[in-house]
Amino acid sequence: MLRRLPSTLLGPLALFLMFVNTFFSVIPLYIVTLFKLIIPVPAWRKFCTQILVRIAENWIAVNNAIFHHTQHTHWDIRGLEDLTKDDWYLVNANHQTWLDIFVLQRVFNRRIPFLKFFTKQELVWFPLLGPAWWALDFPFMKRYSKEKLARHPELRGKDLETTRKMCERFKDDPVAIINFLEGTRLTPAKHEKQQSPYRNLLKPKAGGIAFVLAAMNEKIKTLLNVTIVYPDGFANFWQFLSGKTPRIIIHIEKMTIPAQFLRGDYSNDSAYREQFQAWVRALWEQKDTLIEALTNGAN
């Protein structure tokens, strides 16, 4: 019924429904967050986190229901077999638009552990979202600039050690860490500025996932290599809400991360860094070819 509305009405309606869903999800989330903050008992905080994850998963589930009833998008999802909420995953995906976040939530919600991402320690103070990320046990990392390390060499390795200690909370509780290797959304201008050797991707930044793997101390051994394709051309979130994204292809490849990359010093070990970068480049070349094939096959 709602799908038949014109795009000028469909987009605002879908956005309004998402706002209502967010409003009624934020209230219990912040109540539980408050109790988690004021009672610093590990077992209690773990219990609160479990409740908060359920709230976040329900928020995503309702968003997905809104999409189902307002959009006529065909979801072509491949590779969901053999996924579980009882394993640790590193999720990597190409990045073209903020819609990618909602696509990944749509695909993985309640199929794998709740998606989390590493964020800068300073963002814990970000209005509204910072406390929510803290409450949901998003891992905050502390990074030092090259200039500061040059002035204070004693700080080398401290950022990784700090982040690793924060990740100790995941040693018994499975987690899914998401990382966009490109570091930013793909645009023609960025592609040209980089002189990217890939037709459909920006250059990958290998250091990010190397840092994640090292911080997780060999706990994450599985990579979910996700390729997102909008075969009918570029799609942004507003176009999607307005019913102008007829098809989305999501290809998931479950891979075992090579053992030699589960632990290493990416910053200071040149041999490790070169091997890791070569592995990432090979993944990116395969992804670029796959995007081309999926796009051409859908047209």
List low-pLDDT spans.
none
Rg, rounded, reads: 20 Å
Based on secondary structure, the structural category is alpha/beta
What's the helix-strand series? HHEEHEEHEHHEHHEHEH
What is the fold named in CATH at topology level?
Answer: Glycerol-3-phosphate (1)-acyltransferase
CATH class: Alpha Beta
Can you give a write-up of this model?
The chain contains 10 helices and 8 strands. The protein is α/β, with parallel strands linked by helices. The chain has one domain: Glycerol-3-phosphate (1)-acyltransferase (3-Layer(aba) Sandwich). A 6-stranded mixed sheet has the order 1-8-7-2-6-3, sandwiched between helices. Strands 4-5 form a two-stranded parallel ribbon. Helix 1 runs antiparallel to helix 2 (42-70). The longest helix is centred in the N-terminal third of the chain and has 32 residues, at 7-38. The two termini are 28 Å apart. The model has no long low-confidence stretch (mean pLDDT 87).
Write the layout of secondary structure elements.
Layout: H1 7-38, H2 42-70, E1 74-78, E2 89-93, H3 99-108, E3 115-116, E4 119-120, H4 129-135, E5 140-141, H5 146-151, H6 158-166, E6 176-179, H7 188-194, H8 206-215, E7 222-229, H9 237-241, E8 247-256, H10 270-298
Parallel strand pairs: 1-8, 2-6, 2-7, 3-6, 4-5
Antiparallel strand pairs: 7-8
Helix pairs in contact: 1-2
